[in-house]
Amino acid sequence: MSLFKHLLRNPTAKSYSYSSPSIIMPSNLILTCLSHFTTDASPSTVQLTQYSGLGPTKANEKPRVVVLGSGWAGCRLMKGIDTSLYDVVCVSPRNHMVFTPLLASTCVGTLEFRSVAEPIARIQPAISREPGSYFFLSHCAGIDTDNHVGFDGSSLVIGVICGSVMILDRNAGSVHCETVTDELRTLEPWKFKISYDKLVIALGAEASTFGIHGVKENAIFLREVHHAQEIRRKLLLNLMMSDVPGISEEEKSRLLHCVVVGGGPTGVEFSGELSDFIMRDVRQRYSHVKDYIHVTLIEALCYKAVVKGEKNFINAKVLSFSQSGVRLVRGIVKDVDSQKLILNDGTEVPYGLLVWSTGVGPSTLVKSLDLPKSPGGRIGIDEWLRVPSVQDVFAVGDCSGYLESTGKTVLPALAQVAERQGKYLFSLLNRIGKAGGGRANSAKDMELGDPFVYRHLGSMATIGRYKALVDLRQNKPLDCVTSLWCGYLKETKRVENGSELANGLRGRFVRLN
User: Least crowded by CB within 10 Å, which of 175, 357, 466, 494?
Assistant: First the structure.
């Protein structure tokens, strides 16, 4: 921000970039960055709220791919995109990718938080190395596709910068950005915009609360690193508080009652990690309260957990959880208070820690976009992951779903789906770029090749005590070697030699045919 204000006070400044106060940039790098930014107003009339950012790409510049999001789909695409063909601009409210399968392990200290987060600049080094590639920390609030034309005209623009919220201005045919610097608003807002040649929407999804009162205020969602940090903090705080003299027996039981709502993979894996933590650490280090702490998993449908309709899978899960000390409760949550939740039959369940993992749904931004929607409210796409109503716009990951006109069902919101879509799309964009279709509106009549085809390799959920439930469906074991490798690494957190791996794979998985 100090760099912005300095440049604005200089009447000879004609272009600008931005820099975090904690980042020191060499002068030649600053000059290189400044050459890519433009301002609409004259130097003498520049105001804090009037400026632009990355304009349309020129004939002597590489086409620009703008990626909204830093999840599985967006990061897989950025990792494989050919940066000799494209400049890459990533827009996301976080500067790292979260390896979500290991997130539950960080809540209880099995892994540290840095082990599950990978910086975007490490996934795609061109973002910090190439002069035309950038990462902007931002929230996107709207997309205008009306003015998306060739590189010699105006393109669709997406405003981005640190922690910003973008406001759509349809009259101007662009998306404006207003920074959200902090809750205290100690810094003035800043605005600018970005043009693109290809746009990839990988905004993900948000946790579903089904409109239940009190969920957002009292529950914790296990989707980001800061969620895991909050869970660890609250769990340890409750353990400390329950050992204070004068705390009643009833209050001890409430503080040390951990409730998980949702029997999907996240809920099952977190319950397993928490059970291991209780069995191995709490009983040794907090012996005074070891008999009070317990875990309850609440699921609306007993036969939903992890894989719908698989009776043998559910039976194995129930048996394993009963042995791990996790209590399974069937019920629908109707209301959530600060210290208890109420089920549909009137049962009150007091809790000290509440983790909500009942699945995901389209985000508020995705719902607001003026784009075709698939069943369920996601952004509608065709077989090549394109948004058919607009040019050069693609959607991947949890925010996208097949249109009804394709005759295909909407794919589940899974990491393996998003990763495969990202892998397919970077290959498609690379082929388009090599064929000369990287510019805006230059690939209208281009042959795209084979459409995207998804093959489900199965599901796996760890349940603690070095065990996991695996559903391979109709796949052969050799088709799921990658999944088993990941599962083993996930449970042991290390591999010392091949023989240990082979023994672990034979003895630490419950295979269901």
Answer: 494
